[in-house]
Write a structure and sequence with these properties.
Number of helices: 11
Number of strands: 9
Strand content: 15-25%
Protein name: AraC family transcriptional regulator
InterPro entries: AraC-bd, Homeodomain-like_sf, HTH-like, HTH_AraC, HTH_AraC-typ_CS, RmlC-like_jellyroll
Pfam families: AraC_binding, HTH_18
Structural class: alpha+beta
Keywords: DNA-binding, Transcription, Transcription regulation
Order of helices and strands: EEEEEEEEHHEHHHHHHHHH
Organism: Paenibacillus hodogayensis
Radius of gyration: 20 Å
Shape: globular
């Protein structure tokens, strides 16, 4: 299975964003693959079957969806079919959290900034289909992003981030207009999912209960109580679980030594990481690598 990183694309100035058009037919069908980045995909025209993890679903013109780092996906294009898509590729921390806080966007990103970072067990939809007017507006923004990345005039990085922020807000607004058709979580469960999404994005950074409490405007005891109700675990245990799961993937897919893996998933002390790994998995990181490669 192919694993792609943003280094695979010649993005300028080490700016962690890329956008491109792709056309797929039966002959050019891409391999099932994973990424080290987030991928937003908009279907310009055509139809295909999208393979996602261990499921599949049909995609058509006007569909838009996102793929997390580490998630397997690909397409099946039947004979006589084609599909044309626009791909936006970016790192999970491309949208700085402090900018989102300053813009008071915490409650606006339910679908297209929070949900894509949730694991598959707690996602609540796979894609969004845009109506004609919404699709036109979305495509206009994607065209502007493509133009900025092509011309790379002064300040293009800031404009790209601003336009992506606008795109996420609009997509979440479109999602909220149609969410009555879907089974939507309660406010407290959605809060837990938002926190889960944050942890999934920032697992390699310092994360504490007081910090999350302040960030999401909820008391520490109350947040832990919600986590115990909806996730059957504490906030601290969830953070450790996410980090160890990320570490498992790095142990299998890279040759990094254990201390480097520990650092990459947010642990400064490799010995502490090793103890937590044994507690969660039953054996050491080295033994896990040996058995699962």
């Amino acid at each position: 299975m192919l694993v792609k990183s943003l280094a695979h694309y010649k993005h300028p100035d080490n700016f962690p964003f890329w956008i491109q058009r792709n056309r797929h037919d039966q002959r050019s069908m891409p391999l099932l693959h994973t990424h080290e980045f987030v991928e937003l995909i908009y279907v310009e025209c055509g139809q295909a079957t999208h393979l996602f993890q261990d499921t599949s679903y049909e995609i058509n013109k006007g569909d838009i969806f996102m793929i997390n780092p580490g998630e397997k996906h690909g397409y099946i294009v039947n004979e006589g079919q084609t599909i044309e898509v626009i791909n936006c590729l970016f790192h999970p921390d491309f949208m700085a959290p402090y900018v989102l806080r300053e813009l008071r966007l915490g409650d606006s990103f339910d679908f297209f900034y929070v949900q894509p970072f949730l694991n598959r067990e707690i996602r609540f939809n796979h894609k969004l289909n845009l109506g004609a007017a919404d699709a036109d507006k979305t495509q206009d923004i994607l065209e502007e992003l493509h133009q900025e990345m092509t011309q790379r005039d002064s300040g293009y990085q800031a404009l790209v981030q601003l336009r992506m922020t606008e795109l996420f807000i609009l997509l979440s607004r479109y999602y909220n207009k149609g969410k009555h058709k879907l089974q939507i979580p309660s406010p407290n469960e959605l809060l837990v999912r938002r926190v889960c999404g944050y942890v999934e994005r920032h697992y390699n950074q310092k994360i504490t209960l007081p910090m999350l409490s302040k960030l999401f405007y909820v008391g520490e005891r109350q947040l832990n109580r919600h986590f115990n109700r909806y996730r059957d675990t504490s906030v601290y245990e969830f953070v450790q679980f996410v980090r160890i799961e990320k570490a498992k993937r790095l142990l299998i897919e890279t040759d990094d030594i254990v201390s480097v893996v520990a650092h990459r998933v947010g642990y400064e002390d490799a010995a502490s990481f090793g103890r937590l790994f044994v507690r969660q998995c039953g054996y050491s990181p080295g033994k896990y690598r040996e058995q699962n490669r």
